[in-house]
Design brief:
Two copies of one chain form a homodimer. Chain A is 43% helix and 14% strand. Chain A has 253 residues and is α/β, with parallel strands linked by helices. A seven-stranded mixed β-sheet of chain A has the order 3-4-2-5-1-6-7, with helices on both faces. In chain A, helix 1 packs across helix 12. Chain A starts with a strand and ends with a helix. The complex binds adenosine-5'-triphosphate (ATP) (2 copies) and magnesium ion (2 copies). The site of one magnesium ion has 4 residues of chain B, from helix 1.
């Protein structure tokens, strides 16, 4: 069983898009997947066509009102279950702050479920908040989507420092895997930034890149993973390739 | 004097890009501009070529160690001063939480400066956090950049509710102005989403749209506003048009 946190404090770099489509691809490979929406925006839920405002989610779990198993939505995609998020999750930040073991809350709630899934994928909010720390604390790997820009490049070093902080504090080893997203090979600027990132982070960068394709935006609009909405397109092929590379990298975990 | 908060909890929709380039355009129109970087990522500072890790910024102001006037960087662009942000600003969330009048801290620090500027522009982090509330609390207008997607559309209603909450609590009137960004007119999907947004939010939407153009990414990479990096391009023209529309809308404030 492998826990993958999809994190980057830079906003809009493809975290949710990657969480949904990686989960869907792994599910189609007959792995059992739990997708955890840790972002109060609730976009991993929305992107799978689930409007979760009026149902219990992670907030009720952190407030000890319900078990994690009780809020899971089954089969939101082939082989994929979902722990939904609602806006009330934003209030958890203050709630957790006063708890003992405040960074381990998610880990503790996931513990009883670890035997029922092959992969647990956690979509993180765009911040190095307590919610994000909870995700890092139980991660076997941190997948970092980055778009091609100065701001994204700037954020990686800071994220690396934060992950190292969490790893040292709890004597863990949490490898980082960097995933270039929204890559438009037609522009020289993008190719130059990609090369810069490949040089700076040669050890962490994945072989696969996700191309910029409007099909991925359309898929989210229709509440479906790309593998269902447009299975024969570049976006679907890229995410299948990502799933293969993740399975290969985590096989030894 | 008008305070404009550039806010949207959706990540990566062009908040920082809009803050920098709107400030630069207003500065070239001979208005006196103060750009306040309220995002711990510090990208409004970085996008103007300033690496601020080792200098005092908003964190030192909120901890009462320095006056706001003491941390201002003068003339980062024509007619534009900057209040920089560093990563330590992230710690302010917890610091403010225990203060009385915790949502008014920024307003109180800006008070003595209000006569020295025509516009104060605040770049917000991608969250409805205490930092963002501080910006909303002192705003005369909230400018909401949105990219063309389901996730962006979903976030606007929630942001509207939050702004109304702040306005009611303090008996203020804080108009919202919606700015479509990264608009690629070549795809049918984008044109459909744009039409949907124009129908849903007919009152709040601005006349100007910012086109998708890689020139804006390049400008940030070189630490310059688009008006300096590529003044004769579409990106610069769009932001000049935005500045005109903002001046027109706020003339009566
Ligand atoms: N490869 C891609 N090609 C084209 N558009 C993409 C691609 N990946 C993501 N997008 C679009 O870019 C926007 C940002 O992506 P997404 O919301 O997944 O990022 P995020 O990191 O989860 O954002 P946030 O920081 O708000 O959580 C969305 O509109 C999404 O549909
Ligand atoms: N009109 C545009 N055309 C092309 N690229 C753009 C445009 N506006 C912004 N970008 C790029 O899109 C990315 C996101 O923009 P930006 O960082 O300004 O958004 P943000 O809302 O401030 O993000 P965050 O939520 O992390 O604060 C950046 O790489 C930026 O250079
Ligand atoms: Mg997201
Ligand atoms: Mg920003």
């Amino acid at each position: 069983m492998t826990v993958i946190a999809i994190a980057n404090q830079k906003g809009g770099c493809g975290k949710t898009t990657t969480a949904i489509n990686l989960a869907a691809c792994l599910g189609e490979m007959q792995h059992r997947i739990l997708l955890v929406d840790m972002d109060p925006q609730g976009h991993a839920s929305l992107g799978l066509g689930r409007h979760c405002e009026d149902i219990p989610g992670l907030y009720e779990v952190f407030t000890q009102d319900m078990e994690l198993g009780e809020v899971i939505l089954r089969n939101v995609a082939e082989g994929v279950d979902l722990v939904p998020a609602t806006i009330s999750l934003a209030a958890v930040e203050h709630l957790l702050a006063d708890m003992s073991r405040r960074e381990r809350q998610l880990d503790m709630h996931l513990e009883p479920l670890k035997n029922s899934y092959d992969y647990i994928i956690i979509d993180c909010p765009p911040a190095l908040s307590l919610l994000a720390f909870n995700a890092l604390r139980c991660a076997d790997m941190v997948l970092v989507p980055i778009e091609m820009s100065l701001y994204s490049l700037d954020g990686i070093e800071r994220l690396q420092e934060t992950v190292e902080l969490v790893a040292e504090k709890y004597q863990l080893d949490i490898p980082l895997a960097i995933l270039p997203t929204m890559v438009d090979y037609r522009t020289r600027f993008t190719r130059n930034v990609l090369r810069e990132i490949q040089e700076h982070f040669a050890e962490e960068i994945l072989k696969v890149c996700i191309h910029y394709t409007v099909r991925l935006k359309e898929a989210a609009w229709h509440g479906k993973p790309i593998t269902v909405y447009a299975p024969k397109t570049l976006g679907a092929a890229d995410y299948h390739r990502l799933a293969d590379e993740i399975v290969h990298r985590t096989a030894t975990v």
